[in-house]
Design brief:
By secondary structure, this protein is of the alpha+beta class. The protein has one domain. 39% of the residues lie in helices and 20% in strands. It is built from seven helices and eight strands. The chain has a six-stranded antiparallel sheet, with helices on one face. Strands 7-8 form a two-stranded antiparallel ribbon. The chain is globular, with a radius of gyration of 16 Å.
Amino acid sequence: MFDNFFNFVKLPVGKEITSVVTFLSSVSGLSFFDGLFRFFNEEQKNKWEKIVTEYYIDYLGKIEVVCYDWLGRVFALSDDTNTVIFFEPGTGKVYDTDAGIEKFFDYVVIEYTNDCFALDFFKEWFESTEGYQLLNSECASYKIPLFLNGADSVENLEVCDMEVHWEIMRVTHNLND
């Protein structure tokens, strides 16, 4: 299980991965490709499930957060569909990947890295910041959210604490509704 993913991220597997639980344990807290995407560690999961469901109340008790990307988008396993979904606070939208967790990491992430994590945009941003390495607590946040007609451009991004980013997006989005 997850062999393609481990080859893709060039991470040696120390033990045989026989379940989703083993996979998540083996990548817990790790960051890949200069911070393009990062996995939550066990201590972060409960906190982030609470943060996500404060914004997206319909998902309360129905998700398990897994990882997040450089734009602060959170990827989670949906209890309802058993697929990976992701929450995009900059737009207020939720997307279903239609892939279970193994297919998502062993196929979708590899074949559609740009679609999953906005890789080309990340490269542009990373270059513009002279290779700034986001801390685990940071993301690139839209200064003017997309749902307020902000530009989807590097110039409209700033480094922000991810919790602050989510709170600003949640409050602003709710005021805009």
